Amino acid sequence: MQRSGAANSRRGEGPLSETPEGSTPPPEPEIFGEITRITRRTLHGEVVSHVRDMIIEGRLAPGARINEVQVGALLGVSRTPLREAIKTLASEGLVEVVPAKGAIVRRFSEQDLFQILEVLKSIEQLGGRLACARADQATIEAIADLHRRMLGFYQSRDRLEYFKLNQAIHSAIVQASGNAVLAETHTMLQSRIKRARFIGHGEPQKWAGAVAEHEEMVAALTARDADRLAEVIGRHLDASLTRVRDAI
Questions:
Q1: Which InterPro entries does the entry link to (predicted)?
Q2: 122 φ, ψ (degrees, to nearest 5)
Q3: What are the pLDDT digits (tens) for 156-193?
Q4: Which of 54, 98, 159, 243 has a CB 3.0–4.6 Å from the CB of 59, allowing a cystine?
């Protein structure tokens, strides 16, 4: 009987293994309340986010090799989590891993940008139409709230935080379509040209133009006017290409 109980415990079918005699039993979870466990995934996400920001802001320039020792020291992490982060950024299309050279920040040509934005335009227009028809009111209100928060960063001239919410709005509209394949494809393409789109907002007039277009997008979505939203999205992404072309 004792042997059977041990086997069940190993399979997760019986009680947890008993505390060895003389040792302190593990504390009950209730003693501590709700605690967020520290995991390697949390560290990984932080490193990815920081390196991605460095690429978007141009601190790691297109074509530059990522010096693992320098960047690791700057972030206060070892080379192992940094290398894992580089793998993630390579999967996003922001970094290329070149044999004998290491990780290189990807450089996009004007043709690359045109082709990606051309596809993004179609994806976002379809996503917007579907969102107008399918999204519940809470989802639309959440997107409008993202827009209001984005305007706060625009007013404080915090370009990076503004840009993150700007991109989050584009993603949220496509996700509101309810089409997971569409959203996944959009995420993959959008991540590749974050640096290019970020620098496209560098001049005050261009930045103001992008904000005005977002105002129109949110107004159309709130009204569930699919045709108007698709038109504004198309115009917005056409203008994005012009803004980016002038900046590179």
A1: GntR_C, TF_FadR/GntR_C, Tscrpt_reg_HTH_GntR, WH-like_DNA-bd_sf, WH_DNA-bd_sf
A2: -65, -40
A3: 999 989 999 999 999 999 999 999 999 999 998 998 88
A4: 54
